[in-house]
Amino acid sequence: xxxxxxxxxxxxxxxxxxxxxxxxxxxxxxxxxxxxxxxxxxxxxxxxxxxxxxxxxxxxxxxxxxxxxxxxxxxxxxxxxxxxxxxxxxxxxxxxxxxxxxxxxxxxxxxxxxx
Length: 115
What we know:
Layout: E1 3-7, E2 11-12, E3 18-25, E4 33-39, E5 46-51, E6 57-59, E7 67-72, E8 77-82, E9 91-99, E10 102-105, E11 109-113
Parallel strand pairs: 2-11
Antiparallel strand pairs: 1-3, 3-8, 4-5, 4-9, 5-6, 7-8, 9-10, 9-11
């Protein structure tokens, strides 16, 4: 059974930083595309960043230059370093993996950017 468990969400002031981590289990993730999505209240879930098995990355325009995604295939982890956070980054952040021919999601971690 595939499981994705996120951690690292918190309340942070504008301009601050957070690092989200996701630990994956239940399958071989070394060849899986993985990433982070987010969903703000009243909005659709959107891609923040993704990373392929070989390390190629893709970022939403809102994340470029501020966020960095990374993965450790040996540990089955994917992290999201978020810098220069803005109030509009407030959302529930979900870890994502495409493995076994389907999408898998974590339960989410709350990030709140507010003074």
